[in-house]
Inverse folding.
């Protein structure tokens, strides 16, 4: 399992993260415990997520969205970018690794280390996804909670900005089995959003409208998935979760949310305005609308009481708040749970945090999962009081995966400690340092292994520079 | 094949900086089979020796009842079991099989009749040197070295006056790990602490037989219990993580026995504690482990408690620790841990109180027995309260205010002492 196999052997499919049983090739569920492999394409550590013959080893069948007879091109297919990779990064701590992460001496024996007694990590407690070089995220249990009730589901096309789906759901912590519900919701939403957007006449407003409707449908599907996990309608605290999703289609991002998980647009350039795209359904947000200062409202006694959620007992109106942004300048589209924004809520502060963190990571700073991990580390260093999820789509140059097996525990820097002036050069000019990444880290670059070389990371957005510099908010 | 199952009772939540984890591990054995008939899990055979006190103090009635009790015991020993009878006074004498035999014999109709005839030789004569009895028993067990399950019943009616305490200690050491022995004391002239030393080392029990007429019932019970133990030898293994310390391991039901000192090291992190032979039964163990404190939210394993037969793990219980800043979680004491901790304290208070009384320390005795009354009352232990009432006058049970009774029946005092280690299992 140490080198990329030219022909994947059955063993290279690894083991079930749920029960450890061997996973059969192409299995969507574990034959032993029924664990849903879902989008987790369990790529062996160090192996490319695609075979040497260029076939994508994801659950995607060959191109399936056809609106015209095969061989003919329909105008409605123009937006179709081909199969999209699902999360191609293995779960953290591959199942084959049984050496204890805490003491490094013992082995996990029965869920615990046989030397120091440390609990073996539950793959649900921490996982990363990297469906494409420009899309990645980390979902982490944090420091204080016993369970990771956050969930994340990502998709990304090989070609930057062509198509991506990012979904983050935060299970409501005082309800039953919210960790199951949130993951089901996130995956159901990803499924719903995983289709080419018909271009129609190609008018921007029409496309936004189509995507907005799609987000509404994703909320409905996500709620249905949550309800399906509810054992009985009489459950006193039925499972429920928040919802925030982004669908990126040819440089246009539309986000929708229910609850208090957020989406931000964080441009690199210090003189561009970063924005929170989502609108919280929370008691705190209502107080802010009534004039209370954001900091007071978000740290108040009921700051985390949400007014809308997905669940069997959810409010009737679940129309998501939506907003869109044209991804024309370099920056980050971030979706996150309150586990992160608890420690950095303001969009400007968050942009500065991201810029400082990118600078601190050096050459790996523009690798989405590495940055997501560094931001999770930041939240944990601040106390990790809640589960933390950070999902990122990079607009602009990207870095390859750092050579280390695991993301470095970057010394994340709080925003106030990192003046924008100081980080500006590093944050805005990393391209030169990171450009050779695809060649340097072939195993981690889906784009290079896919057989069809992707455009250079910088080129795809360059053409769109003339477009409107800012997005429009719909609500 | 015997099956072992485990259950853990504990509050795994520790406060910030907390280090000590307490758990009750309930072990249940089923399908143990019978001892010594090859059908048991041990696969081997069993041997049984009756050691009957025939010292002068037994008197005519004691000897007559001893003969009867031994006869009853012989009828309870399963055919096929290897057996022998030893008469004990200032020396241990093999009574059956007769002089000249080269090894123990198997029980059958003929040998049973021979043995019953041979015990008519019991005569009340001589002193008491229990160490010689144990040494003789070991010698006799060694005549059938292939037998893996060895058990003896030792009946005494007096103090160990005809050898030095060291001699008894050496004899006990020689027998430890070689055979199990239940000790029964007849009347009020034997020493509970001597009997406890023997039984504790030899994984047996101690009890009082108040009068000779009760001997037969007790022997019958003991042999039946021994014959039901189809699993010859079981070890309790306790693993604790690197840097942790096993504070103690106690059997807490059906009777209290601190087995901490019986540890032998299996590997640097695992200790084994012998628990002897098992029947279809349930025993509870209190395991306490001290861990290096971890940060809030961390969870780890505090101990693996395993039942091991012939070096094979039959069952395992996991004792956990989770550090939390939620006081509602960390301040709760598990019911089972609390009750058994209380019963252990009660036993210690009774034994210490009676020892103080015997040493003439009336103030100490009053204080300790008062505490015992207080615990017994608080836990609703009416049986122990009524036993205590025979030794002390209770002025206020709740505060533990008591006065020592002027005249106390020695038997009542001894009954209180021997009963102190019998625990009551509580329901979940």
């Amino acid at each position: 399992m140490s080198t990329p196999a030219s022909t994947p052997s059955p063993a290279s499919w690894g083991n079930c993260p749920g029960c450890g049983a061997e996973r059969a090739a192409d299995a969507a569920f574990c034959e032993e415990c029924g664990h849903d492999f879902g989008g987790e394409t369990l790529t062996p550590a160090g192996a490319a997520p695609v075979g040497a013959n260029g076939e994508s080893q994801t659950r995607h069948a060959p191109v399936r969205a056809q609106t015209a007879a095969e061989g003919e091109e329909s105008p409605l297919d123009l937006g179709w970018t081909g199969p999209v990779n699902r999360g191609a990064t293995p779960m953290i701590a591959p199942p084959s690794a049984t050496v204890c992460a805490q003491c490094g001496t013992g082995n996990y024996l029965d869920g615990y280390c046989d030397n120091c007694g440390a609990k073996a990590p539950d793959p649900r407690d921490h996982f990363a996804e990297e469906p494409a070089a420009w899309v990645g995220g980390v979902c982490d249990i944090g420091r204080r909670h016993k369970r990771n009730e956050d969930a994340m589901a990502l998709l990304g096309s090989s070609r930057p900005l062509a198509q991506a789906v990012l979904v983050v759901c935060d299970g409501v912590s005082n309800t039953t089995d919210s960790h199951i519900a949130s993951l089901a919701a996130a995956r159901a939403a990803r499924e719903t959003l995983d289709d080419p957007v018909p271009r129609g006449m190609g008018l921007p407003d029409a496309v936004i409208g189509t995507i907005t409707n799609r987000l509404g449908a994703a909320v409905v599907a996500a709620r249905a998935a949550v309800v399906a996990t509810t054992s009985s309608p009489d459950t006193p605290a039925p499972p429920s979760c928040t919802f925030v999703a982004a669908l990126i289609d040819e440089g246009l991002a539309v986000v929708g949310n229910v609850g208090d998980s957020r989406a931000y647009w964080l441009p690199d350039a210090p003189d561009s305005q970063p924005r929170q795209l989502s609108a919280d359904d929370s008691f705190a947000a209502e107080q802010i609308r009534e004039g209370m200062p954001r900091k007071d409202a978000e740290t108040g006694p009921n700051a985390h009481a949400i007014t809308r959620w997905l669940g069997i007992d959810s409010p009737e109106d679940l129309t998501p708040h939506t907003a869109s942004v044209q991804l024309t300048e370099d920056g980050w589209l971030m979706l996150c749970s309150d586990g992160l924004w608890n420690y950095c809520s303001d969009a400007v502060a968050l942009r500065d945090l991201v810029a400082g963190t990118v600078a601190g990571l050096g050459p790996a700073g523009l690798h989405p999962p590495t940055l997501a991990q560094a931001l999770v580390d930041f939240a944990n260093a601040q106390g990790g009081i809640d589960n933390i999820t950070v999902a990122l789509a990079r607009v602009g140059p990207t870095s390859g995966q750092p050579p280390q097996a695991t993301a470095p525990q970057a010394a994340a820097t709080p925003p106030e400690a990192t003046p924008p002036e100081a980080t500006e050069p590093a944050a805005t000019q990393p391209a030169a340092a990171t450009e050779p990444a695809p060649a340097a880290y072939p195993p981690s670059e889906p784009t290079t292994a896919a057989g069809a070389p992707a455009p250079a990371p910088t080129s795809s957005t360059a053409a769109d520079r003339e477009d409107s510099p800012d997005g429009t908010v719909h609500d | 094949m015997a099956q072992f199952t485990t259950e853990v009772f504990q509050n795994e939540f520790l406060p910030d900086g907390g280090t000590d984890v307490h758990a009750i591990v309930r072990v249940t054995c089923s399908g143990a089979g019978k001892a010594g008939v090859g059908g048991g899990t041990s696969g081997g055979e069993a041997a049984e020796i009756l050691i009957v006190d025939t010292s002068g103090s037994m008197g005519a009635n004691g000897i007559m009842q001893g003969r009867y009790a031994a006869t009853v015991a012989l009828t309870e020993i399963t055919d096929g079991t290897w057996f022998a009878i030893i008469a004990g006074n200032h020396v241990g004498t093999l009574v059956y099989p007769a002089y000249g035999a080269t090894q123990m014999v198997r029980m059958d109709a003929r040998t049973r009749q021979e043995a019953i005839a041979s015990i008519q030789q019991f005569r009340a004569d001589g002193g008491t040197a229990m160490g010689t009895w144990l040494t003789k028993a070991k010698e006799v067990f060694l005549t059938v070295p292939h037998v893996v399950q060895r058990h003896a019943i030792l009946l005494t009616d007096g103090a160990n006056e005809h050898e030095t305490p060291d001699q008894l200690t050496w004899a006990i050491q020689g027998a430890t790990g070689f055979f199990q022995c239940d000790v029964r004391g007849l009347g009020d002239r034997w020493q509970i602490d001597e009997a406890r030393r023997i039984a504790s080392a030899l994984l047996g029990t101690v009890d009082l037989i108040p009068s000779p007429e009760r001997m037969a019932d007790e022997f019958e019970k003991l042999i039946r219990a021994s014959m039901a133990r189809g699993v010859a030898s079981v070890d309790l293994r306790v693993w604790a993580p690197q840097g942790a310390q096993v504070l103690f391991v106690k059997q807490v039901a059906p009777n209290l026995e601190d087995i901490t000192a019986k540890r032998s090291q299996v590997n640097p992190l695992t200790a084994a504690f012998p628990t002897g032979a098992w029947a279809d039964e349930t025993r509870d163990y209190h395991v306490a482990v001290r861990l290096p404190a971890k940060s809030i939210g961390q969870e780890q394993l505090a101990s693996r408690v395993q039942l091991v037969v012939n070096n094979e793990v039959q069952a395992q219980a996991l004792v956990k620790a989770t550090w939390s800043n939620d006081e509602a979680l960390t301040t709760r004491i598990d019911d089972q841990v609390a009750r058994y901790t209380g019963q252990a304290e009660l036993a210690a208070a009774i034994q210490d109180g009676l020892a103080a009384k015997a040493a003439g320390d009336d103030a100490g005795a009053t204080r300790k027995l008062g505490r015992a009354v207080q615990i017994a009352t608080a836990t609703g232990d009416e049986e122990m309260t009524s036993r205590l009432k025979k030794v002390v006058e209770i002025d206020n049970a709740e505060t533990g205010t008591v006065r020592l009774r002027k005249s106390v029946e020695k038997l009542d005092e001894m009954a209180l002492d021997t009963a102190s280690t019998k625990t009551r299992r509580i329901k979940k």
Summary: Residues 64 and 83 of chain A are 8 Å apart (CA to CA).
